[in-house]
């Protein structure tokens, strides 16, 4: 998500998601000049943002906490971009900056596309390395393997990549980005087309998941991470704020059980902050919610209820194991949990 001053324009002009401008990769062979090194980089994320949440979940599942430090931005932006007002003195304690835009500016001036998360910053230089949200998590899964924890899952297994890519492409078009195309639509026709495509795809995904626990294969993969980050926000913000209201996630037996299964899996729900999610969407998108009022609902207690998806079999972490406890400094505050 961008942090520019265009928030008031949402819903008043055609919506088009910007492509990542900084697409350097951090790889084993340092092909772009950025080698995988423990402690060298800092992941800047927002718990409000579904695109950034992918990276937070992947980092935790793979056990990269000690190798790749994490900065959590304030869910409420101002016109200078994502800010570090959650930290003492309003500065990120590692990068020493007040706004993520400072790392962008150190890399390039006059860059297009605004300031977005997730972003990986090179700590020694303070420069942005990448904001390529589509590639970033794939590289964490495939290029950072030497730094993975013992028992880390294979989130992007080579034998299943073609199927994973196909599923993720459909999920991105109609679901991940589809909720935004509906929510930020500037006219009725655009909204109806996006909303119709969204729910059509959700119905297809529901059928796919009726007899299988995960989207591809019998373990959690990148495809599940990417679908989860939209589903977990669905009833809290997309159903009301984005008018994606043909039905709630909690009214879809299969998808609701699937989402609860993942939420209750270590590495997923323990990264979710519903307080950040709701305050960001309702208070930042002033073009479609000018009052900035944040609704009290929905009731979140259902996320903790039994899902019974284990009856379908599957091995959540494959031959691996669940991640350990969340580091104390990274635990979601009580007000953000069901």
Task: Give an account of the 3D structure.
By secondary structure, this protein is mainly alpha-helical. It has nine helices and four strands, in the order βαβαββααααααα. It has a four-stranded mixed sheet with strand order 2-1-3-4, sandwiched between helices. Helix 4 packs parallel to helix 7. The radius of gyration is 19 Å and the shape is globular. The relative contact order is 0.15.
Which terms would index this structure?
single chain, 338 residues, mainly alpha, 4 strands, disordered N terminus
Brief summary:
33% of the residues lie in helices and 5% in strands.
Describe the protein's topology.
Blueprint: E1 41-45, H1 50-62, E2 69-72, H2 101-107, E3 119-122, E4 127-130, H3 133-142, H4 161-176, H5 178-183, H6 188-208, H7 222-238, H8 253-263, H9 274-284
Parallel strand pairs: 1-2
Antiparallel strand pairs: 1-3, 3-4
Helix pairs in contact: 1-3, 1-7, 4-6, 4-7, 7-8
């Amino acid at each position: 998500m961008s942090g520019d001053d265009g928030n008031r324009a949402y819903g008043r002009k055609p919506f088009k998601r910007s492509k990542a401008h900084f697409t350097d990769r951090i790889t084993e062979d340092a092909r772009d000049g950025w080698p995988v090194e423990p402690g060298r980089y800092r992941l800047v994320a927002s718990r409000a943002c579904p695109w950034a949440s992918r990276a937070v979940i992947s980092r935790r599942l793979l056990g990269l906490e000690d190798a790749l430090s994490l900065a959590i931005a304030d869910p409420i932006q101002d016109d200078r971009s994502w800010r570090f007002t959650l930290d003492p003195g309003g500065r990120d304690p590692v990068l020493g900056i007040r706004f993520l835009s400072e790392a962008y500016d150190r890399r390039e001036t006059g860059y297009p596309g605004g300031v977005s998360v997730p972003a990986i910053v090179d700590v020694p230089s303070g420069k942005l390395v990448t904001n390529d949200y589509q590639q970033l998590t794939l590289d964490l899964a495939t290029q950072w393997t030497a730094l993975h924890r013992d028992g880390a899952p294979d989130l992007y297994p080579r034998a299943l990549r073609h199927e994973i890519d196909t599923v993720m492409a459909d999920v991105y078009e109609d679901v991940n980005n589809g909720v935004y195309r509906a929510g930020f639509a500037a006219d009725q026709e655009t909204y109806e087309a996006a909303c119709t495509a969204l729910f059509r795809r959700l119905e297809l995904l529901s059928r796919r998941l009726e007899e299988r626990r995960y989207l591809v294969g019998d373990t959690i993969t990148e495809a599940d991470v990417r679908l989860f980050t939209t589903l977990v926000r669905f009833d809290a913000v997309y159903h009301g704020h984005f008018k994606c209201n043909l039905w709630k996630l909690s009214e879809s037996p299969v998808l609701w059980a699937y989402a609860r299964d993942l939420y209750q899996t270590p590495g997923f729900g323990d990264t979710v902050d519903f307080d950040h999610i709701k305050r960001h969407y309702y208070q930042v998108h002033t073009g479609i919610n000018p009052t900035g009022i944040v609704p009290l609902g929905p009731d979140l207690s259902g996320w903790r209820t039994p899902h019974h998806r284990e009856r379908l079999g599957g091995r959540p972490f494959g031959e691996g194991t669940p991640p350990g406890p969340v580091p104390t400094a990274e635990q979601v505050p009580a007000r953000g949990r069901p």
